[in-house]
Design goal:
Blueprint (H helix, E strand, L loop, with lengths): L1 E7 L6 H6 L4 E6 L16 H12 L6 E5 L19 H7 L2 H7 L1 E3 L26 H14 L16 E4 H4 L4 H13 L4 H9 L2 H4 L10 H9 L17
Parallel strand pairs: 1-2, 1-3
Antiparallel strand pairs: 3-5, 4-5
Helix pairs in contact: 2-7, 5-8
């Protein structure tokens, strides 16, 4: 009773999903093709649109475990591919400790902390320190209010990038369907562009699914908990991932 939810552009090859996971259900959403069997209503918000669309459309019949992924099998957004290309999304998902996901409710599939930790989003950073290269930080206060209905915005929001994670049904159901519908409506209606609106959610998923605003698990412990083994690379290099 588990599913892989994948967001893709119509020219991206996701055959690896079906070929490698015959024992998983799959839901591959194409964000820019209205003729695709599964698609989003519009191409906005990067992978967040597909993820939220899946949750809203299936809220009453969610499987016990969900894994949300990008379309690429091999890239450095995941945890176990850094320094060893044998460890890609296929290897990571196959090694994933499902019992640990049930126990904790939510896990980021990326154990490497950079980028994202220890203090990626600082909504109240002094204006003279804000960068035009970080529009998601500028937009976070208003986004937080519109999404969560309050101004209790944390001074720091941090979690390893890059919006690939696993969550249990029980954890998803701790929020109402109305809440997820509100998140999706915000994503579709916000004047923020595709990249910025998507990055807002990139650094909110852990909060939506019950973690503290700063959620930066120890890397070695993360590897042990999620995959049953320490990282097979030099942790001191902490190679960062590319931009989405």
């Amino acid at each position: 009773d588990k599913i892989l939810v994948v967001a893709r552009l119509k020219w991206e090859d996701t055959n690896w999903v079906h070929e490698n996971f015959p024992d998983w259900k799959t839901a591959v959403y194409t964000v820019n093709d209205q003729e695709a069997e599964l698609h989003t209503s519009t191409n906005k918000g990067r992978e967040a649109n597909a993820y939220l669309t899946y949750i809203v459309d299936n809220y009453s019949q969610l499987p016990s475990i969900m894994v949300f992924l990008h379309s690429h099998r091999n890239h450095d957004h995941g945890s176990r591919d850094v320094g060893d290309l044998n460890f890609d999304n296929v290897a990571s998902v196959k090694a994933l400790n499902i019992d640990f996901v049930h126990q904790t409710g939510y896990v980021n599939l990326r154990c490497i902390q950079s980028p994202g930790c220890p203090a990626e989003i600082q909504p109240f950073r002094p204006a003279d320190e804000l960068s035009d290269l970080r529009p998601q930080e500028r937009a976070m206060v208003s986004a937080w209010n519109e999404l969560f209905g309050n101004f209790d915005v944390p001074k720091i929001i941090a979690s390893p990038c890059c919006a690939q994670f696993s969550v249990s049904r029980d954890q998803v159901l701790k929020r109402s369907k109305d809440e997820y519908q509100r998140y999706l409506k915000w994503l579709l209606d916000t004047p923020l562009n595709d990249a910025t609106s998507g990055r807002i959610f990139e650094y909110l998923w852990h909060i939506i699914f019950g973690r503290e605003p700063v959620h930066c698990p120890d890397m070695n412990q993360c590897y042990q908990d999620l995959y049953g083994s320490p990282p097979r690379w030099n942790a001191s290099s902490n190679t960062p991932c590319k931009s989405i």
